[in-house]
Amino acid sequence: MHRFRTHKCSELRKDHIDQEVKLSGWINRIYDLGGVLFVILRDTYGLTQCIVEESSPLLETASKWRVESVVTITGKVRARSAETINPKMPTGEIEVYIESAEVQSSADVIPFQVYEDDGAGEDIRLRYRYLDLRREQMQKKIRLRNNVVAAMRHKMWDQGFQEFQTPILTASSPEGARDYLVPSRLHPGKFYALPQAPQQFKQLLMMSGFDKYFQIAPCFRDEDGRADRLAEFYQLDVEMSFVTQEDVHNTIQPVIQSIFEDFSDFTGEKREVIWCDSLPYKEAMLKYGTDKPDLRNPLEIVDVTEVFARDDVEFKAFKGVIEKGGVVRAIRAPKVSDQPRSFFDKLNSWAQGQGAPGLGYVLFADGEGKGPIAKFIPEAAQEALKNAAGLEDGDAIFFVCNKEHEAAKFAGAARDAICDAMGNREQGVYKLCWIIDFPMYEFDEKTQRIDFSHNPFSMPQGGMADLEDKDPLDVYAWQYDCVCNGFELASGAIRNHKPEIMEKAFGIAGYSKDVLEAEFGGMLNAMRYGAPPHGGLAFGVDRIIMLLADEPNLREVYAFVMNGQYEDQMMQAPSEIGHEQLKELHLKVNLPKKMTDAA
Q1: Which long-range contacts (CB under 8 A, 24 or more apart) does 515-518 make?
Q2: I need a surface site. Which of 186, 324, 354, 498 has the fewest CB within 10 A?
Q3: pLDDT band at 98 (very low <50, low <70, confident <90, very high)
């Protein structure tokens, strides 16, 4: 007989009755029923109920066992009586009567329950992550992650892609987020950077003649923590040569489609996967107030600036903003005339909680407009509103007025708030969509200059001619995102493969040729020796798994992860470094004054 087990804790059935077996695992639960000790033994595969009889010489010793201790038991399989069969357990028709046992490792008193969710907070769960990971739901999510990544690999291999591993220690580059820097011992005063993405390397692979690249790539960004963003994350990174935007989409879309279809029943409900029509960026911002819309929400935003700019409309709160270049956005809420006043009051309170003065509306019922601002909108203007928003009797229309960018952002949030208040967000479905035609540049209000709005390595849609002849804010790039249920899953582009266009594009954003050579000289030089047209994208592995697991927090789909302040409470990182190691790295620590005062 094997030293530790003849069977896993999920395997024993009625066919094993009267067999002597050996099981090893953790004590999931233990309880005494009238002198008979019941031990629920758990391994990663399942549970088995084991029994220490009242007459057993093991009873006194076993009664002192603690949950989460690791034990090996040997005993005989017996059938449960009809009234004690547990149909919820695969092993629920049998139990093992323990004849001998060996404690492999005794557990201290545990800080929270493993066999059930006892409401332990995230901090303590992360501090004792190895205990948290023993929970059935956590194990399911980590296995989901493994299976999704394995499926991605096989699907990419099946399409002829080769898998590469690009460097982790690389050069710092201005790609939007802050770099994590690593000091060089051999080169005093110089630093490596952990990659925000393998962007330059995958493009260099295309310039090296490899036609199809992919990687499950680790990426690092020193950004503020939030539920859907981590300092360290993984992406399905893809690049292809001699392709158009449509080629990239048509190649990767079946991969993502099948991943969602294959794993969509993780939570017990098979969900439909729907690809919606591609949306130009400007249309997405107008209709949904965001470039990552949740298309399960049927509500759309319309522009009604012209209605409130009319001479016969006297609503001064909006007119003053419009005169300064502002806009009025509106969201139609269909058939809400039977809603109580509290429906509108709660939405108004929500808007105030977001820092707005309120959420003005007009309710059309019984052939007339009602509500707090209806009196400022004469009948002719109300008819114009109906035409602009497709309003019918029984509908309400909610308004947002501000500068264009701010109005779009708040209208997008209001659209979701109204949808949730109505309870009409579509369920049981993943709705995916490509957002296309991103502007190449944007005007940064803080720095008062033109900057890249997306990936700086993208090809402008009109090539050099657009960069030379158009206002930079009117230049579109071959850039695209993939969104699903309100989350950005992927970002990509057809790349700029011509050095003269790259120099011009970066020049418009304020980068001199010297800076360009210093920051991206390796890739720029490679372009000068013949670069194929190429493009690609990267899908966030973690966000896909988060959606499949129906988890709002990325930290719930990782085995080991830092908290929202980017602290590893289990491994005590980040940690202070001793003087000798700092000296070896030619570093001195210069703490902020408030920290030195506290010390």
Answers
A1: none
A2: 186
A3: very high
Distance of CA 414 to the CA centre of its chain: 22
Asked if residues 432 and 356 have their Cβ atoms less than 8 Å apart, the reply is: no
Q: Is the pLDDT of residue 596 over 90?
A: no
315: left (phi over 0), alpha (psi -120 to 50) or beta: beta
Quick one: DSSP state of residue 198?
S
CA distance 347 to 87: 47
Q: Which residues, other chains included, contact 2 with Cβ-Cβ below 8 Å and sequence gap of 6+?
A: 22
> How is residue 100 annotated by DSSP?
E
In this structure, the chain runs to a length of 599
| C-beta separation of 39 from 30 below 8 A | yes
Average pLDDT, the chain: 93
* Contact (CB, 8 A) for 131 and 68: yes
Show the DSSP H helices in 498-548 as ranges.
499-508, 513-527, 541-548
pLDDT tens per residue, range 99-114: 999 999 999 999 999 9
Residue 377 φ then ψ, to 5°: -115, 105
Q: Which phi-psi region, left, alpha or beta, contains residue 394 (left: φ > 0; alpha: ψ -120 to 50)? A: left
Residue with tokens 């090893």: 24
CB 248 within 8 A of CB 491: no
> Distance (Å, rounded) from C-alpha 261 to C-alpha 129?
30
The rounded distance, in Å, linking the Cα atoms of 428 and 91 is: 32
By C-alpha distance, which of 488, 467, 535 is closest to 281? 488
pLDDT-based confidence at residue 175 (cuts at 50, 70, 90): low
Buried-exposed string 28-49: b where 16+ CB fall within 10 A, e elsewhere:
bbbeeeeeebebbbbbeebbbb
DSSP-assigned beta bridge partners for residue 192 = 182
Nearest to 503 by CA among 512, 494, 492, 491: 512
> Phi-psi region for residue 68, left (φ > 0), alpha (ψ -120 to 50) or beta?
left
Structure tokens belonging to residue 569: 């409470």
Q: Estimate the share of the chain in helix, then strand, then coil, as percent rounded to the nearest 5.
A: 35, 25, 40
d(CA 204, CA 199): 9
Q: What is the distance of C-alpha 401 from the center of its chain? A: 30
Q: Which residue has the tokens 């372009």?
A: 527
Report helix angle 136-158 to 541-548, nearest 10.
Answer: 130
Region for residue 70 given its phi and psi (left: phi exceeds 0; alpha: psi -120 to 50; beta: otherwise): beta
